[in-house]
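Q: Structure for this?
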Amino acid sequence: MLTFMSRFVATQPHDIHELCQTHYDEVWRFCARRLGSQNAADAAQDAFLIALEKRSFIKPGVDPKAWLFTIALNVCRNHARRRGREPFSVETLHEAAPNVWSHVVDRQVLIGALAKLSESHREIIVLNFIDGFQYEEIAQLLAIPVGTVKSRIHHALLNLRNTLEEKGAQS
Amino acid sequence: MNQTDQIFAYLEGELASAELQAFELELASNPELRRQVDDLRNLRSALADLSPTPEPQGKEAVLIAVKAKTASTPALPKFLGWRWVTAGGIGIAILLTYVTGPLNKIGNTGGDIAVATSSPMMERSANQESEAKAEIEPSEGFSGAGAPPAAAADAMTEETAKRTRSMPDPPGGIAGGLSTTRNRIQEVNVNMTIAVLDVDVALQKADNLVGQWGGFSTNRSSSVTEEGGMGNITLRVPQENREKLCADLAALGTVRTKNSTAMDITDTVSAINEQVLQMKATEGRILELIKRARNSQEIRDLNAQLNQVRAERIQIETSLKQMKKQASYNTVEVSFIQRQTWEANNDGNWFQNELDAAGTRFQGLGRFLFAVLLNIAITSPIWIPLVLFGRWFAKRTAR
């Protein structure tokens, strides 16, 4: 009943300035991984301004951080669409610092294999392994069940491994 | 759980202790499984290391922009979601439909033939009836003065016999000719074609109605063709109740055609009466001759003539009685045809017709639900755009 009533009761708008203070760096990196560091600041600013405008829309019980990243994800998608490129392009991954590279898998080969994944698989791999979101957070971000998130990640990893094995066999 | 699921559960630390022990035993003895686990572990590690870590930029500028806009940007009103818009749209549509009329008619429909007494269809039928009534209003000698047809006929016997003729149609139709005629005897025939949803039910209703108005049915038939059912019934009703019966019949469905004809038989009746009088006079003369007869042979011959004339007179008098009876009852011939439910009537009130159809097909709750569904379908041009707009607006503003 409370949940039902809460649909009609306007919630207290969140303090977006405080959210910006706390999460700006994460949002900026999130955007940078999708659009490149050149465009990350613009996208992050757009995300915070949209959040400011729609601050009364956040539903009770929803994590403001997850809501903020949902907005950021949509902003990145729109920016990428306007630039005529895929929202989860692997180009930005080349900006990774060379000193953190694992020597077990060749970095270029891995990025090449990622590029061959479907968009939904690539999106979920980036969210989980590169952005570092937990399954529950991804489920909130993409508005899908946690089970679907897990299963999608497992399939994406298996596809990625198969692609890498094929490349290894070829080389 | 298959082996792949077990591998992922192991890598994510989700195996229970018993399962974990069993899996580690399997892992120690199965090099292929160990290779798969190592591959996926390395892959996860490599993916995690792939994350670029440049230093964030522009934080101060965004903070200033957010702070500046916080005061000037009011929060958009909370949107309730497209489901509520959908429900609201349908609700408003039904409410509008109810308020504007058609839905509340459902409560007025009753019986196996639904008749909304205040519906435009019925009003139209009533108008048709009154027009038709004016057309075939008989002479005042019949109904206005209250003189029975037989009495009128008797009064005419003293007049000079005229040749029987049908009343010619005056320029204004039959009404123009008859409205000015007094003390005339007429045979009135009404032909009606009525579209109904159920021909058999309508036939039964017509039979009952004519009984209520003091008449009877003489002929009844029904058939089914490719176009639907069809039924004919011939009704005989006292002249004074003819219009009431026609009005009740019109209420059974939609009147498609209605023709009334009135044949003036005053001259015929007068002529026959005159003939009867002459025959009676002949009989009297023969009786006089019989009295004066001089022998038995002459009496026998005259008796034979008298019997012949008397038989002819009785036959003519029987015909005259039949004719008077015919004139005292009017004939209403009704053809019922099956109406297609999708068919628009002449009045174009398709919606009302559909509700009538619902009243015929369904009873009680079923009828009401049918009416609601019909309203939802008919008002779809109102609520579908509302819903689509609501969904678009909800999606636009949700994030």
